[in-house]
Amino acid sequence: MEIYKRLLTYLKPYTMRLVWAVVFMALTSGLIALQTYLAKIVVDEGFVNMNKTILLLIPAAYVIVTLFKGVALYAKDYLMGHVGQKVVNNIRDQLYAHTVSLSFSYFTKMPTGIIISRIMNDVNLVQGGLTRAPAVLTQGLLTMMVLLGWVIYLNWRLTLASLVIMPLAGIALSKFSKRLRKASTQMQEHMGSLTTHLHETIGGIRIVKAFSMEVHESRRFAEKNKDLFNALMKAIKTTVVSHPVMEIITVIGSALVMEFGFYYVFRQTMTPGDFVAFMMALLFLYRPMKDLNSVNNIVQDGVAAARRIFEVLDSVPEIREKTDAISLSRDFQSIAFEQVSFQYDGHEEDLVLNDINLTIETGTTVAIVGKSGGGKTTLVNLLPRFYDASSGSIMIGGVDIRDARIDSLRSLMAIVTQQTILFNDTVRTNIAYGRLECSVDEVMRAAEAAYAHDFIQNLPQGYDTIIGEAGVKLSGGQRQRIAIARALLQDAPILILDEATSSLDTESEKEVQNALDRLMTGRTSFVIAHRLSTIIKADIIIVLKDGRIVEQGTHEELLKLKGEYKNLYDQQFRDESRPGGIGMV
Ligand SMILES: Nc1ncnc2c1ncn2[C@@H]1O[C@H](COP(=O)(O)OP(=O)(O)OP(=O)(O)O)[C@@H](O)[C@H]1O
Ligand SMILES: [Mg+2]
User: Fold this and answer.
1) Inter-residue contact 427 to 440 (CB < 8 Å)
2) Whose CA is nearest to atom 30 of ligand 1?
3) Inter-axis angle of helices 167-203 and 272-314, to 10 degrees?
4) Could you tell me if 355 and 389 lie in one domain?
5) What dihedral do alpha carbons 408, 410, 412, 418 form, nearest 10°?
6) Are strands 399-400 and 353-361 parallel, antiparallel or unpaired?
7) Do 139 and 53 lie in a common domain?
8) What is the pLDDT of residues 413-472, one digit of tens each?
9) Are both 275 and 406 inside the same structural domain?
10) What is the largest CA-CA distance in the chain?
11) What CA–CA distance (Å, rounded) separates 231 from 209?
């Protein structure tokens, strides 16, 4: 109920439209009753009293009434459709804006598919419950009120008799709709499982093929598809049986009512016209009764979807800005981690970072090395506040980053991640992402500096070529250089680089390396390094093991220690230092 109340606030701006819609609904209901009244006149005046004028005029009147009814229906459906779609639009915008404002941790907890389903499907369900169902309900109730009033006026005893008989049809109807609903829930589940299967195997088609799993996947697909077929058939069986059964029940009901009616007509307590109008009205009553039956389900689905939507809207970003947050300056002298510890939510027993103390002077390159799972990515994720330290603090130029404005903090950093994310847009927009206002010239200069200009020029439409999901595909090295150009264009004083682990061929490796070197010059760089060449060039290397800094120093110093770094070196990098060796990771 509370959820519904909150939903209603979305309708508030459209109150006037809704009022008009109700007016048109009432008009529709009135005109339906008028149609049955015309039938009464035809019989009583036309046939019984042999009034020729009436017989000539009534068909024309019938046309006019139907015309008006059509206009009223149109106006009401248009208004309701408009309000419904407006509400969907508003909720969807709000939901998207809120979702992207949420912190990183939300997205690690929530599968992307679920987030998309909230924004796409749930919003539609809400519209059903918020505008479609109430419209059907209002229209149905109005029509029932008008028609019931009319049949009571025509013959209240007969009305009473039919009220005993007609609910039988209602009971049967609700039985059918329950079964249909069960079948449709099953159908949706099977559809979801089929979609997930498609998503995984088409998205991962390379793996499917590489492991020759086509036949296996086709078989799995066929099984799921069969389940879907079975669920669909259940729904179809229910529907096809419900039509004739419902017809029989209504006809039996009407036949009984008719018998009573004939009795009144013979005893002359009811005119034949009243009788015909009565039967017609009863027929017209069937439709709203049927509609009302579906309203409940639509509302329930809508409320359930609304609950899920509000859950998203009510979740607050974990990373928040203080009200008196300050702007960070670009000319800071140092970055310091002071007794920083960190654990992920829900994993309180494992410290991923444990008492990290580290001071970096501006302009230095820090290489972070360590075994997989040692906490390297976690460490650099604290800098832009993707997560906040569980204890301790990170200072940039003496300012705790939690006291800084988030946009000013993040504008100090350019981030190049292991996987390059390119959007389905032009090369130019992809490079300018984050600084969309910059000129073509600037984009080109960044691309040149990233050794990307040449291959971009050879693309079909140069800088205007669409790349990404639906566009021209780029090689791994090309993608990385686009990402480097993007970071260069940000011209941020701090660079965070999660070096790609996948080895490129020697040629593009060299170009990417050159581009990276250029990107690092003059910046304070945090590099999660997998290449020996990067590590050797770093001003300081820190070795992370189980969340602690176990060693730090230059390559030579660390090798002499014969400790963790030496181990790593022996396992990972030694081959790389030999001429012609392959860099293993
Ligand atoms: N979102 C998360 N929720 C819970 N635990 C996480 C999360 N992300 C990482 N971890 C855990 O934190 C630890 C450190 O992970 P992290 O990604 O920082 O390692 P890494 O040093 O970057 O490893 P790699 O070299 O493989 O990239 C791992 O044990 C990992 O399982
Ligand atoms: Mg990592």
Assistant:
1) no
2) 373
3) 40
4) yes
5) -170
6) unpaired
7) yes
8) 999 987 788 888 999 999 999 888 999 999 999 999 999 999 999 999 999 999 877 667
9) no
10) 120
11) 31
Mutation pick for ligand 1 pocket among 109, 378, 383, 419 (CB with most ligand atoms within 8 Å): 378
Helix orientation angle between 156-165 and 167-203, rounded to the nearest 10 degrees: 40
Residue 55 forms part of a structural domain: yes
DSSP alpha helix (H) spans, 155-271: 156-165, 167-203, 205-210, 214-266
- Predicted TM-score (pTM) of the model is 0.81
Distance CA 258, CA 549 (A): 91
Alpha carbon distance 247, 242 (integer Å): 8
100, 319 in Cβ contact below 8 A? no
- Mark 153-171 as b/e (b = at least 16 C-beta within 10 Å): ebbeebbebbeebbeebee
Ligand closest to 369 (CA) is: 1
Distance from the CA of 107 to the center of ligand 2, in angstroms? 17
Chain centre to alpha carbon of residue 386: 22
Task: Please give the radius of gyration of the chain, using alpha carbons only, rounded to the nearest integer.
Answer: 36
β-pair type (399-400, 391-396): antiparallel
Task: Check whether residue 64 and residue 128 sit in a common domain.
Answer: yes
Is 151 a pocket residue for ligand 1 (Cβ < 6 Å)? Answer: no
Structure tokens at 575: 């081959």
Cα distance between residue 526 and residue 396, in whole Å? 14
CA angle 492, 496, 499 (to 5 degrees): 135
Distances (CA, A) of 562 to 367, 553, 566, 569, 570: 18, 13, 5, 10, 10
Distance of CA 304 to the CA centre of its chain: 16
Ligand minimally distant from the alpha carbon of residue 530:
1
Domain range for 388: 334-412+525-580
CATH number at 125 reads 1.20.1560.10
Token pair in block for residue 349: 């027993």
- Count of domains for the chain: 2
Distance 349 CA to ligand 2 centre (A): 20
> For the chain (length 585 residues), average pLDDT per consecutive 10?
89 95 96 94 91 90 95 96 94 96 89 84 90 92 94 92 78 84 84 85 90 95 95 90 86 88 92 94 86 83 91 91 92 94 86 94 93 92 94 95 94 88 91 91 94 92 86 83 92 88 66 85 90 86 93 92 89 59 35
- Token duo for residue 456: 């971009």
d(CA 382, CA 103): 12
CB of 352 closer than 6 A to ligand 1? yes
- Kindly report, residue by residue over 108-165, the tens digit of the pLDDT: 888 887 888 889 889 998 999 899 899 999 999 999 999 999 999 999 999 988 887 7
Looking at the CA of residue 370, tell me the nearest atom of ligand 1: 21
Residue 118 lies in a domain: yes
CATH of the domain at 353: 3.40.50.300
The set of residues, in sequence order, having a beta carbon less than 8 Å from that of 431 and lying 6+ positions away, is: 443, 446, 447, 482, 485, 486, 489
CB 311 within 8 A of CB 98: no
Q: Residue 584: helix, strand or coil by DSSP?
A: coil
Residue holding tokens 């924004």?
119
Is 51 a pocket residue for ligand 1 (Cβ < 6 Å)?
no
For tokens 């008196």, the residue is 324
Find the 376 Cα to ligand 2 centroid distance in Å. 6
End-to-end C-alpha distance for the chain, whole angstroms: 57
